[in-house]
Amino acid sequence: MNDLKYLIVGFVFGIVLTKSEAVSWYRIYEMFQFQSFHMYGIIMMAIATGMIGLQIIKKNNLKNSDGALIEIAEKEKGSFRYWIGGLFFGLGWALVGACPGPIFILLGAGFYPVVLILFGALTGTFIYGLVKDKLPH
Known about the structure:
By secondary structure, the protein is mostly helical. It has helices spanning 4-19, 25-32, 38-60, 80-96, 100-108, 114-131.
């Protein structure tokens, strides 16, 4: 019963992404073609919301749902691996028109060919798990 709150937040998140058209392949295509500001506006609002949320957490020493103090790790030095990871993520996003969250939203909305995208995402995650110790971290 305690996990019900996470399920509700997931449904609300899915509804918001669907209504804002953030799961629309056409909106994502427009973004990568620089034909529309719509997705960039959504991304910028998400960044601003995250920044404000982090400042509120830091300033008020907020606790998580288990009552433990929320600790925010310091930034790591070296960004090369983030550039490489972002490149792979962005290429996948551009090729299939969906990042991880919308994959599940599209499945829930009845777009069953997205199962192939989910399979590809899970396969890529599995392969990363196999080779991560050999990669420069």
